[in-house]
Write a structure and sequence with these properties.
Jelly Rolls; single chain; 8-stranded antiparallel beta sheet
Length: 543
């Protein structure tokens, strides 16, 4: 069953309301429409006091691994084994009777087995060696109404997360489950029989790198109908710190507005991005504002040209209002929009000296392990629309991944320089990547999008005429050496793509090309070579 408003991201694959005992033939009704389950080994039906949607009855298991519901659905069907960027969210109302050992809500009867449930008095999520155990479980031998808790075991974007009563109590990057055996409810391999009551058991498969948004978690934890999961609402994401109120300014498509405070000595107490943010909002002057094409700046050395280090973007632009030589003690903020071409996973990066913070509306950033010293800071939960290196590092290189929907997303970069050489840059790429050659600068709301996948497509002659692939058709034809000849040659190819051969073709979402010998522009670094380029040769006479 596809969910209204969320069909591309969350699909309800299993929903056992656990009402009125078993169905005719001993089946457990699955309202997701993917096939009913079978109760194996018994279990006791009791009146449910859970604040769940279905209410009515609940199912009691008694720490016997031979009592369970056989879903007759493979782990892959439910999303347990699809891995990053796909995954699952498994949910249930849980009322635990007694401690300890393994007490699993979702599992399998063969190894390497799924273990999502409770282990030794804590909530546990296990992909057989890729596990987390967090929080504290409450136990009640009488299974009183106050002992019900809603639990979500979620695996998305390569991260395991556990929510209890709507709160994320722990998460960590972990590997996917490798066993495609059928999933069982109420048990797992290695004496994992559940000990307590279960109600409203559901599983969603997650696709496109998506995960549950806070409004969806809250819906389920408040007893909402699992069939009517609301559409993902980016506005429900935690949003502190907010975009600081320094105006977006003008400039139009393709530009961001940068504001800089240059006050040598006056800002000498800057030690963090938070200090920089406060300074930018304090009314300190002079405040310099300028429309800039990208987040890619450096102050100047004594010679007057932009210096500074870089990881991805070069050459650097000069900070607005900058004077020759190293400039000390200043704060800056960029405001603009990054245009996302399609729903999917994206990687963002920041680098700079000293500290820098990137916020993108609608993002749920997860820092890519090993990419640098940055992280999701204490002022945000483990997944947020902000990631940063807060300060005094000398190098702020960090990458973070997120799912984003297509369209323009507001972004803000805040940073500062305390002393010595200064530079900063922010960049993005389609997909999850650590290869810096895939990244391009982020700036304003441009058309075409400024996040550009380096995807090559089949030549025009294969039938891609007037291409149905979104983006710019980039066609090369060798020979022309003036503009009139170039126009005629290219128009001939578009008029008859099957009869007029080309010398190179691809579709891209930005135009930023150079020859691989003595080529290069000033803005769109890193550039790519023209289609059909001959490596190592400085070429002439082509359109």
């Amino acid at each position: 069953m596809l969910l209204s408003g969320a069909a591309s991201a969350q699909t309800l694959q299993l929903y056992y309301p656990l009402e009125d005992g078993v169905a005719p033939g001993g089946l457990i009704l699955n309202l997701a429409g993917t096939g009913d389950g079978t109760l194996v080994g018994g279990g006791t039906w009791v009146a449910s006091t859970a604040p769940s949607f279905s209410g009515g009855t609940a199912l009691r298991f008694t720490n016997d691994e031979n009592q369970f519901i056989d879903t007759a659905l493979s782990a892959g069907t439910l999303g347990f084994t699809n891995g990053n960027p796909n995954g699952y969210a498994a949910t249930a109302w849980v009322n635990m009777t007694a401690c300890c050992g393994d007490s699993m809500v979702f599992g399998q009867n063969s190894t390497p087995a799924l273990h999502d449930g409770v282990r030794d008095g804590a909530y546990h999520m296990g992909h057989w060696g890729n596990d987390i155990t967090v929080g504290t479980v409450t136990f009640d031998g009488a299974n009183g109404p106050g002992n019900w808790h809603h639990v979500i075991w979620e695996y998305a974007q390569g991260v395991e997360r556990i929510y209890v009563d709507g709160n994320n109590i722990g998460s960590a990057p972990r590997g996917t489950l490798s066993n495609n055996a059928n999933v069982q409810v109420g048990t797992s391999e290695n004496n994992g029989g559940f000990n307590g009551l279960l109600d409203d058991v559901a599983v969603y498969s997650l696709s496109g790198g998506q995960r549950l948004f806070p409004n969806q978690v809250a819906h389920l934890a408040s007893g909402g109908n699992p069939i009517e999961l609301p559409a993902a609402d980016p506005e429900s994401l935690p949003s502190a710190p907010d975009f600081i109120p320094v105006g977006l300014g003008g400039g139009g498509a393709g530009f961001a507005t940068m504001h800089v405070i240059y006050t040598d000595g006056l800002l000498a107490d800057l030690h963090s991005v938070t200090d920089a943010s406060n300074a930018l909002q304090s009314g300190v002057s002079p405040l310099v504002a300028e429309n800039v094409p990208m987040v890619n700046h450096a102050d100047t050395g004594p010679g007057g040209s932009p210096g500074g280090g870089y990881s991805v973007l070069h050459p650097k632009l000069r900070y607005p209002g900058d004077v020759d030589g190293d400039t000390e003690d200043f704060a800056y903020v960029y405001n603009g929009y990054v245009n996302i071409p399609a729903d999917g996973m994206y990687t963002f990066g920041i680098d700079g000296d000293d500290g820098q913070r990137l916020k993108v509306a609608g993002a749920q950033f997860e820092v890519i392990a090993g990419s640098g010293g940055g992280g999701i800071r204490d002022f945000k939960p483990s997944a947020s629309d902000v990631f940063s290196v807060e300060g005094d590092t000398g190098d702020a290189f960090t990458l973070a991944k997120t799912f984003l929907t297509a369209g323009a997303h507001q972004f803000q970069v805040i940073g500062y320089e305390r002393g010595g050489g200064a530079f900063n840059e922010a960049f993005a790429a389609v997909g999850v990547t650590t290869d810096i050659s895939n990244f391009q600068a982020i700036g304003g709301a441009a058309s075409p999008p400024i996040v550009a996948p380096p995807t090559l497509v089949a030549p025009f002659a294969s039938g891609q005429a007037g291409s149905d692939v979104p983006g710019w058709d980039v066609v090369r034809k060798n020979g022309p050496n003036n503009i009139n000849a170039a126009i005629a040659a290219i128009e001939a190819i578009f008029a008859d793509p099957l009869g007029q051969p080309n010398d190179g073709y691809e579709v891209r979402e930005t135009i930023s090309y150079s020859d691989d010998v003595d080529g290069g522009g000033n803005i769109g670094f890193p550039q790519v070579v023209f289609p059909g380029d001959v490596p190592g040769v400085g070429e002439n006479d082509f359109a």
